[in-house]
Amino acid sequence: MSVLALQLAGPLQSWGSTARFARRTTENAPTKSGVIGLLAAAQGLERDADLSDLAALRFGVRVDQQGTRTRDFQTAHHAETDDAMPISERYYLSDAVFVAAVQGEGGLIAELYDAVRAPRFLPYLGRRSCPPSRPVELGVHADADLEDVLRDEPWRAAAWHQRRRRQEATVELQVITEPGRSGDGGGSPGDTLRDQPLSFDPRHRRYALRTLRRATVRVANPHGRPVHTHTADQRHGAPAHDPTSVLEGA
Question: How far is it, in rounded angstroms, from Cα 125 to Cα 35?
C-alpha cells in the first residue's frame, strides 16, 4: 500500500458533514467526503461518476493549525425574479492548516498524485469560495503506513503560529484516522461521522457513517528554542556587594 500526503491550507476552509438548508456548518477538520471530492475533481470525474475506488481509500488527517471558527451571514436575491432568498449562515475555519493522507493501492495513489499536480478542475477546501494558499500535494510514500506518514510529516503550521509556541521544542497534534482493515488498536475508536461518500450526484447525494479514531503525535517545532531557567541575577549578572568592605582598616 502507498500513501498520498496532502497539505490543506488557506485563508478559509469549510468541511460540512451535516450542513443542510440555510445553516451550513463546518467540522473542525477536513471530512473524507470533502477530500475525496477534491481528488475526484483533480481527476476530472463528473459528479455522477463511480466513486467506489476513491471511497475505498483509507483516510486520515492531522490538525497542524486549528484555526478560528468564522460565521458568515448571507443574504441574496434571485437572479431573474429578484425575490429575496432565504437568509443563510455559513461557517468557516480561518487560518487553519491540516495534513491529510489517503492510503491505497500503489497505482491508484500514483494516478491521484499526478492528478493533484495537474488538476482537471481546480481544487478547493470544502467550498468553491475556499481556494488553497499552498500547493496541495506533499508526495507519495510507497509501502508506507498511514499513521507513520501523519506522524513523520514536518509541522506545516504557519511560521507565525510556530513562533507563538517557540518555547516548545515539540508540539502535540491531534490525528484522526479510520481503523485499518484489521481494526488495529490504538487511540480511542467509537466516534462516527456521516462523511463516507457514496455518490456526489446532485440528484441524490449519499453518504454513509464512518468510524473515527483519535490519537495524538508529537512533531518538532522548527522555531522551538530551549527555555532557560536562570534566576534574574544569573540573567543580568549580580553586582558585587560586600557590606563589610567599608570597615576594612577600621
Answer: 8
Contact 61, 99 (CB under 8 A): yes
CA distance 127 to 38: 10
**Could you tell me what percent of the chain has a pLDDT over 90?**
71
Residue 134's contacts (CB-CB under 8 Å, 6 or more residues apart) are: 7, 9, 10
Grid cell at residue 87: 437568509
Is 180 in contact with 58 (CB distance < 8 Å)? Answer: yes
Query: Against a cut of 0.70, is the pTM above it?
Result: yes
Q: How far apart are CA 122 and CA 44, in angstroms?
A: 10
Strand pairing class (88-104; 23-24): parallel
Q: What is the CA radius of gyration of the chain?
A: 25
DSSP 8-state class, residue 87 = P
Residue 113 belongs to what H/E stretch? helix 106-117
